[in-house]
Amino acid sequence: MTPSRILITGNMGYVGPGVVQHLRQVFPHAELIGYDLGFFAHCLTGASRLPESRLDRQEFGDVRQVPDALLAGVDAVVHLAAVSNDPMGNAYEEVTMEINHRAGIKLARQAKAAGVGAFVFASSCSIYGMGGEDAKTEASGVNPLTAYARSKVASEQDLAPLADADFTVTCLRFATACGWSDRLRLDLVLNDFVASAVASGEISILSDGTPWRPLIHVRDMARATEWAIGRTAANGGSFLAVNAGSDEWNYRVKELAEAVAAALPGTRVHVNPAAAPDLRSYRVDFGLFRQLAPDHQPRHRLAATIAELHEQLQAMEFCDPLFRTSRLMRLRVLTSLREHGELTERLTWASPAAPAAAPPRAEAMAAT
């Protein structure tokens, strides 16, 4: 399918800018519409242009209240909008289920009723939780350990009955995201390690370093999204939940730290052998994705991703050893907006006019 109109929810986060840029390149004649509340709109990092300038239209709104009219004539929905990691999910557990699960299912039903042909859901390999040493396939049992992971499992379960010959649903179980973005996050394992090495010359692993993490570059997430938009029921079924990533990107946390240290000579790695075990450990088998999407396999490699992060952080003169308390951490952004009275406890704007206005300190992110 070559779509003529695509709706992308949550496009103003970490993953969204790369997805928008890629879809603009591969579908130059499609109408691209963004839909986002704008919590992180001000979190730009070294962007040469506003990412949303590649869209035909940017709508500000709550994914819990998507107007039916927005779906008119839409061929594909790319659903990225979510409370997007474990710290935020832990802080806003009920809201996480409301936004990530219930709102997503409501949107899917709206999309199906409007005649949308493809629904692409950004799921996560974190649903495997404490996975042990065996590589998890799509047939493996899930073991979600956090509100974020539970919301993804519940969403997949409730999306499955909606799929049919006219409504193809693809749940991309993404590996842990990494790599440079116009709205960089440093609350992700590889990004954190590179930032630590650049800012302080040290990497402190908060576990014993043994947990497994599969990774995927954000631009490879965009390529997988393109594939899912065009996927037909003949290639995987009307409903498909598939691990999205590469077998080569399964690493132990300590191995990631050591790779960063090797790329940035002089970096010291500290492991805390007395730390409480991190139960979130999972190796993942990406064989089904390799079989179904041979032309959309990940292209980025670990060394090049580390080098890119290093180069771009240097270009923005990043030097903040306290970055974990900065606006480069998504939970910190929400906390700041709450402290300034901009957000309610349900993660809605306190004022109806807030999305169109600049959030506090809305200058492009400085690395100070």
Describe the structure.
49% of the residues are buried. α4 links the parallel β5 and β6 (168-174). The longest helix has 21 residues, at 93-113. By secondary structure, this protein is α/β, with parallel strands linked by helices. The strands form 3 sheets. Strands 3-2-1-4-5-6-10 form a 7-stranded parallel sheet, with helices on both faces. Strands 7-9-11 form a 3-stranded mixed sheet. It is globular. 32% of the residues lie in helices and 16% in strands. Mean pLDDT is 93; it is low at 354-368. α3 runs parallel beside α4, α5 (189-200) runs parallel beside α7 and α5 (189-200) packs across α9. It has a single domain (5-182, 211-248, 282-299, 333-356), classed as Rossmann fold, CATH 3.40.50.720.
Estimate nothing, just give the exact number of structural domains. 1
CATH architecture identity: 3-Layer(aba) Sandwich
Low-pLDDT segments: 354-368
The H-and-E topology, N to C, reads as EHEEEHHEHEEHEEHEEHEHHH
Secondary structural class? alpha/beta
The main pleated sheet reads as: 7 strands, parallel
Strand neighbour order, sheet with most strands: 3-2-1-4-5-6-10
- How far apart the termini lie comes to 46 Å
User: What portion of residues is helical?
Assistant: 25-40%
Overall pLDDT metric: 93
Gross morphology: globular
Number of beta-strand segments = 12
Q: What is the CATH level 1 assignment?
A: Alpha Beta
- Helix tally equals 10
Which value, in Å, is the CA radius of gyration?
A: 19 Å
How much of the residues is beta strand, in percent? 15-25%
The CATH topology label is Rossmann fold
CATH superfamily descriptor = NAD(P)-binding Rossmann-like Domain
